[in-house]
C-alpha cells in the first residue's frame, strides 16, 4: 500500500497562533560513523498556500534514486531551509541526545542567518522527546510530534533535505577511508561496515564511545 502523502493541516492550525513555524527532523541518529544532522524548514502562512511537491514523503519512505530530486524540489518549495550538524566527536563527548540538540539549534540558527525571524517561532520536532530546549539559549516553544516527518509536509521536507545532505557528506568521506563502504552504507551498521571495523578498527569518523561491536546489523 502506498504511503499516505503528508499535509499542511497541523502547520495551518499552528499558524493561527504563531507567525512562523519551524519544522525539524534528524538523520544519522543510529549510525556507527559520521555526524548527526538536523534539517530545519521555515513555514509561514504564505508557504502553506503553496502546493506540496509531488512525491514528498518522510525520507525513509523514499527510495534512494529518487531522494535527491525530491530534496531539490523541497528546497525550492520552502521559504528557507538549513541543516545543522554535530560531529561524531561531539556525540562521543556529550551523548547522542545532546548532540541532536546542538545540531537542531545550529539548523535553526542557520535559518536566522538567512533573515528568518526565529525568535518567536514555534518548532515542530519529529518524535516524542524535546532535545532542543535543554541546549537552546532562546526560550522558543518546541512541540514534539510523533510521526511529524510522515504527516506534516514541512517536517517531510526537513527530513529529505537533511537525509540527502548527510548522505552526500558520508559519500564524500568515502575517499578518506574506502574500506568502510560509506558511499553505500552512509555510516550505518551494514555487514560490510562491521566486517571492515573488525579488520581495520575504528577511524576518526566513528563514534568511539558506542558499543559498536554489539550494534545490530541494519542491512
UniProtKB/TrEMBL annotation:
Cofactor note: Manganese or magnesium. Binds 1 divalent metal ion per monomer in the absence of substrate. May bind a second metal ion after substrate binding.
Domain RNase H type-2: 19-219
Catalytic reaction list: Endonucleolytic cleavage to 5'-phosphomonoester
Subcellular location: Cytoplasm
Gene Ontology MF annotations: RNA-DNA hybrid ribonuclease activity
Highest taxon, organism lineage: Bacteria
Keyword annotations: Cytoplasm, Endonuclease, Hydrolase, Manganese, Metal-binding, Nuclease
Cofactors named for this entry: Mn(2+); Mg(2+)
CDD domains the UniProt entry points to: RNase_HII_bacteria_HII_like
EC number(s) from the headed UniProt entry: 3.1.26.4
Record's signal peptide: none
Primary residence: cytoplasm
EC category: hydrolase
Transmembrane residue ranges: none
Residues that, per the record, bind a divalent metal cation: 25-26, 126
Protein family per UniProt: Belongs to the RNase HII family.
Job description of the protein: Endonuclease that specifically degrades the RNA of RNA-DNA hybrids.
Protein's recorded name: Ribonuclease
Species: Microbacterium aquilitoris
Amino acid at each position: 500500500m502506498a504511503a499516505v502523502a503528508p499535509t499542511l493541516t497541523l502547520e495551518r492550525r499552528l499558524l493561527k497562533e504563531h507567525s512562523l513555524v519551524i519544522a525539524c527532523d534528524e538523520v544519522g541518529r543510529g549510525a556507527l560513523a559520521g555526524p548527526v544532522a538536523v534539517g530545519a524548514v521555515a513555514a509561514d502562512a504564505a508557504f502553506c498556500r503553496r502546493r506540496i511537491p509531488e512525491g514528498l514523503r518522510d525520507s525513509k519512505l523514499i527510495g534512494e534514486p529518487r531522494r535527491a530530486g525530491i530534496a531539490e524540489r523541497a528546497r525550492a518549495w520552502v521559504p528557507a531551509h538549513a541543516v545543522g550538524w554535530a560531529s561524531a566527536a561531539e556525540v562521543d563527548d556529550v551523548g547522542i541526545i545532546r548532540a541532536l540538540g546542538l545540531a537542531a539549534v545550529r539548523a535553526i540558527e542557520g535559518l536566522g542567518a538567512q533573515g528568518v525571524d526565529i525568535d518567536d517561532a514555534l518548532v515542530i520536532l519529529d518524535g516524542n522527546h524535546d532535545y532542543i530546549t535543554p541546549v537552546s539559549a532562546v526560550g522558543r516553544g518546541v512541540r514534539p510530534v510523533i510521526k511529524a516527518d510522515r504527516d506534516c509536509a514541512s517536517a517531510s521536507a526537513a527530513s529529505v533535505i537533511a537525509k540527502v545532505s548527510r548522505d552526500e557528506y558520508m559519500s564524500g568521506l568515502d575517499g578518506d577511508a574506502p574500506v568502510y563502504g560509506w558511499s553505500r552504507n552512509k555510516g550505518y551498521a551494514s555487514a560490510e561496515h562491521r566486517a571492515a571495523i573488525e579488520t581495520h578498527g575504528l577511524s576518526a569518523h566513528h563514534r568511539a564511545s558506542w558499543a559498536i561491536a554489539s550494534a545490530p546489523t541494519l542491512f
